[in-house]
Amino acid sequence: MYPKVKPALARAWRDLQTVQFGVTPAHAVVLGPLDAATGSLIDRIDGTRGMELLRAEAAATGLPEGQADGLVRRLAEAGLLDDLTAGGPRAQALRRRPEVLERLGPDLGSLSLVHREPGADLRGIAARRALRVQVRGSGRVGAVIAAVLAGAGVGGVEVLDGGRVEVADVAPGGLDPGSVGRLRAEAAAALVRESAPGRAPGAGDPDGPGPGLALVVVAPRDGLQAWAPDPATAADWVATGTPHLYAGVLEGTGLVGPLVLPGSTACAGCMERDRVDRDPAWPRMLVQWRSAHRRRAAGACDLGLSTAVAGLAAAHALAFLDGQLPASTAARWEAALPGLHWERSALRPHPDCPCAAAAPAAVAAGPVLAGPVPAVGSGEVPS
């Protein structure tokens, strides 16, 4: 074991016996009481020393036997400790790829805060590399989502879209001006390759993505398809139990969500039935809007808003892929120009929808939204 205090949290002494790790309340931990000698030992827990050397250095400073082990144990219980030998074989394989780790350093820092056990950051990245995600759409929202997912270490990111790249598809972080005129699928695939940290694992690679889809992100260039998704398009995902997340921009309004967990949360069919219940004219208008979408000129998709939507959707997708349920689970978040106040709308399964998410068993076992796990410390962190 080569213990290392996680570097993602800034450290400051609150007083002579109490140290606070972290600035923001979401992940900060207060540890104490600590005497000066024990506090100075924290600086030596930097991953360059094994436990035997740490014990010897603790004894040299006059600390009693067992003090080094006790400090390491307290740090581990508080979720503040990493171990440069932990994480399993896949993590060790990543340690032999410094160019990948350097690119993913900030992502590893974030994962080390969310997952408290030593080595969980590298294990999380290794898990991402084994996942396959499909992004439906390569416009200002979809292409950026795909690039972010690939850049964050997801091993298999494929983008589905038709036609050729148009000037209006170009966006910072997404398709560049040189892509104009190319087939959208080819241009998006090139963007994914360029965004990935190092060589992405291939399908035959034992650490590469498996055949099944972990998530579908629906980010169509026509935001109407995200705002009012077609139940027929989502039928296969619902039937196969494939989680899917909607995101897009329509008429200066950005939306992220819902993340649909088939059989547990409201699907596209539930949303359409609920809207019809509330607005009898909805089916008539929806037919007109859908039939006109091919004739529509470039939509009102402000670059700042589309980038914000893409970033938030990608973050929610990554949270889900990392084993958490983001705030878009069973909910839609909307923000409209010019105020951009994000508002949440809860979405409930419809009793008449064949997805059966409204069945008593599904409701009883519905998703439990995961929140931040408080670390073990010795005091409250002021907000």
Give your account of this protein's structure.
The strands form 3 sheets. Strands 7-6-8-9-10-11-12 form a 7-stranded mixed beta sheet. Mean pLDDT is 88; it is low at 368-380. The protein has 15 helices and 12 strands. A hairpin with a 2-residue loop joins β9 (244-250) and β10 (253-260). α4 crosses α7, α6 crosses α7 (120-129) and α8 packs across α14 (303-321). The chain is elongated and about 80 Å long. It is 37% helix and 15% strand. By secondary structure, it is α/β, with parallel strands linked by helices. It folds into 2 domains: 3-85, Outer Surface Protein A, domain 3 (Alpha-Beta Complex); 130-364, Rossmann fold (3-Layer(aba) Sandwich).
Question: In a nutshell, what does this entry contain?
Answer:
This protein has 15 helices and 12 strands. With 383 residues, the protein is of the alpha/beta class. It has 2 domains: 83 residues, Outer Surface Protein A, domain 3 (Alpha-Beta Complex), CATH 3.90.930; 235 residues, Rossmann fold.
CATH architecture of the largest domain: 3-Layer(aba) Sandwich
Q: Which CATH top level class of the largest domain fits? A: Alpha Beta
Estimate the helix proportion, in percent. 25-40%
Number of domains: 2
The parts where pLDDT drops under 50 for at least 5 residues are 368-380
Strand order of the largest sheet: 7-6-8-9-10-11-12
Give the topology string: H per helix, E per strand.
Answer: EEEEHHHEHHHHEHEHEHHEEHHHEEH
Distance between the termini: 35 Å
Briefly note the structural class of the backbone: alpha/beta
* CATH superfamily placement of the largest domain: NAD(P)-binding Rossmann-like Domain
Rg (C-alpha, Å): 24 Å
Number of extended strands: 12
User: What global shape is seen?
Assistant: elongated
CATH topology of the largest domain, anyone? Rossmann fold
